[in-house]
Amino acid sequence: MTHFDVTARDGEARAGVLRTAHGDVPTPAFMPVGTKGTVKSVDPDELRALGASIVLGNTYHLHFRPGDELVAELGGLHAFMGWDGPILTDSGGFQVFSLRDTLLAVDDDGVTFRSVYDGSATRFTPELAARIQANLGSDVAMCLDICPPAGVPRAELAEAVRRTTSWAARQRHERRARGQLLLGITQGGADEELRRRSIAELVELGFDGYALGGLAVGESRHEMFDAVEWAAPLLPPDQPRYLMGIGDPEGVLEVIERGVDMFDCVLPTRTARTGSALTWQGRLNLRNARFQRDPRPVDEGCGCPACTRFSRAYLRHLVNQQELLGLRLLSLHNLRFLIELTAGARAAIERGAFAAFKADALARLARAHEEATWTS
């Protein structure tokens, strides 16, 4: 049995199933981010009820706190966090290279940096990234990569591509957890020649799937979507495709249209912690005084706990008083919004109607933005 099947296509958009040791993941799939072994303020049963089929854990942070060896001792990440569904762990590369103030040295063997926890000098290598993820026992592991920000000199981008390929080749031969899939991460930014080179080199090595890394790191939205449009079809058609770090409703629809199967972002929970909700009426800042006496739910027709039981006025009260319940409820709502949007996209692909679904969704979101601008 293969680990990934494309079950429907509509243009470049794809519906499929990713099969893992802890269950199947229907794609397209939005992956809630559980950085430190938890999706902030949301428990695993609630994630299931929202429709989540896979969550993401962070190799960098879990390595330092509580320690991947401790997690292994306690039965692996699934048992540790009480989630029995699929888990994807990133490689730690994005954290190492995005925290550039902590970066000490990069060479062909690995990268040296200061821990964000205690400032001690620490080193990551492809072999260590593999060992950490094997200890965590995730269903999908990622290769250690070099992820430079947008706008770096082309020579630095080319060097990131070279080292990313070299590191992936080494990690490919390391021990994995039982049934663990390994995905390679392509680099090259929006540079077409370098991205094509990276894809060709990683595909030749052979992985269980591929990510488009080094996008959504500061380049313009136009550059990002344009790069996804020509890069995604270069990836193997029978393997899952993962775009790292996209999670706004418009962006999700754009990358699904371009052939991406999986994506993740902290946006829904981070936005909730600022008191804002993702809705078909636009992004609502519930701290705003205009919601003080608003008896309506956050989003009409939404079945999440926030919308079925509470008013905008009550949620405004909670977030303005910094009550944890308010942040929890908005996190549940925002996750539900993106998970249902993605499920709707999948159903539309299966009907051969994704273009109409996307156009309708974008029109609703744009109309809400115009109305919010007009009334603000």
Please give a quick description of this structure:
It is built from 15 helices and 16 strands. It is of the alpha/beta class and 376 residues long. The model has no long low-confidence stretch (mean pLDDT 96).
Structure write-up:
There is one protein chain. With 376 residues, the protein is of the alpha/beta class. The protein folds into two domains: 4-265, Queuine tRNA-ribosyltransferase-like (TIM Barrel), CATH 3.20.20.105; 272-375, no CATH class. The protein has helices spanning 44-50, 59-64, 68-73, 77-81, 93-98, 126-136, 154-171, 192-205, 221-231, 249-257, 267-273, 305-309, 312-320, 324-351, 354-375; strands at residues 4-10, 13-20, 23-27, 29-34, 55-57, 87-89, 103-106, 111-114, 121-124, 140-142, 181-186, 210-212, 241-244, 262-265, 276-279, 282-285. An eight-stranded parallel beta barrel has the order 4-5-6-10-11-12-13-14, surrounded by four helices. A three-stranded antiparallel sheet has the order 1-2-3. β1 and β2 (13-20) form a beta hairpin. α6 packs across α7.
Gross morphology is globular
Share of helical residues: 40-55%
Number of distinct helices: 15
N→C terminal distance: 55 Å
Derived from helix and strand composition plus strand pairing, the structural class reads alpha/beta
Number of domains: 2
Q: CATH class of the largest domain, anyone?
A: Alpha Beta
CATH topology of the largest domain: TIM Barrel
CATH superfamily of the largest domain: Queuine tRNA-ribosyltransferase-like
